[in-house]
Amino acid sequence: MNEKRNKGWLKHLDFLILDLICIQLAYFIAYWYRHPDQIMYRGTTLYTHLNIILLVVDVCYVLVRPVYKNILKRSVFREVQSVLLHNVVLWLIIIAYLYLTKQAFWFSRSMMTMAILLCVIFMMAGRICWKMVIRKRVWKGKHQSCTLVISTESHADKMIQRFRQRMYNGFNLTGLVITDHNLEGETIEGIPVVCNMDGLIDYIRTQVVDEVMINLPGKTQECSNLVNKLLQMGVVVHLAVDYEEEAYPNATIERIGGFTFLTTSINTAGSLALIIKRMIDIAAGLLGCAIMGVAFVFVAPAIYKASPGPIFFKQVRMGKNGRRFEMYKFRSMYMDAEERKKELMAQNKMDGLMFKMDNDPRIIGSEKGPGKGIGNLIRRLSIDELPQFINILKGDMSLVGTRPPTEQEFEAYDMHHKIRLSMKPGLTGMWQVSGRSQITDFEEIVRLDASYIEHWSLKLDFHIIGKTFVVVLKRQGAE
Asked: Is the pLDDT of residue 169 over 60?
């Protein structure tokens, strides 16, 4: 799924928030220095009102002027100029306001002078430090899309050079696919050629690839076939604008790294919607971890008594676009569960790349009878899933998404199965609220997951969360 990239001042919302924090900090310190015996917002309405106006004026100034344009490329000297101009305009407007409203007499001049000086210092230090953090993350490729470039040998080096001139595109070029020569294992401008066209689909299926850029002039039909395959895998595709003949879904024209691309994906989400989704995840993660702590007091002794060993079960799972992470659960199976799984494969009731069986003997206490024992109890009540709120807080998972496959399942995926990993995996999702125990066809699970990603919205997430509560309370679909 593609994330709409912010434009204008929204592109640098982090710098706006940082500046507002610096302004607040400067204003509060100056006020406290001048009035150490008073607390802001308590009996000092004039200073409180001015503080609010100061913030509003700053936001309006950012909306009117391109304050943060090319901010990541600015030198220290240019940043000094920008901060000084910013503060001159900001404080002149404030002074003019005080003069026109005849309030200047009531404000401390020393306090105002200190606030202006501190504001300049804090904004300068804040911007420079934050730019250092961003640049460090950019060079390391952290929190950036892993992007594969498909091009000819002659075009590839030009693309890489332009991207390096514009290092803040939000992309991490992880590999090249050269179509006109077999250069696998070689490098171009320091970027490795990871495969040729014959091995492209298998490489994307097994490796972390978020987005693909295609620049193949004169090969319209070849590009069209390739794009359709990539969309089936849930990959975001950036296509050179020469190939606009097909009606690709969610198509937008973007300027990326000095090139103009047509970008297509199975769904497109706005940055604000994704921010809200992440905020919901953090809130749910904190609440879930608190509930897990309470459950641990009762569950841990029961698990250990029935099956001595670790209380938590950790397993490597596959996250967004094939990123590996450790998923946590309360252990509901005996210690040798993974080894015994091979012996029980004949009883697998799932058609496809998942394992599920009735009356699984690996579950703790299952020897007491069907549905008996602590293992079956915590699975029936979904208590074993509570530690996954840790994964949600860490950002490996989301509250709502698709279930993360194991490494073994992932390695056996066909091309179209990888669409399940085009979003972060979730604690709950479409499959879980659609009667997971009744669904035994893996292809049906893939269809449900693909439908969720294709139609994703915050409204759909809230709908699934609501249905999850009903499913858990009624114990529907529990294993």
From this structure: no
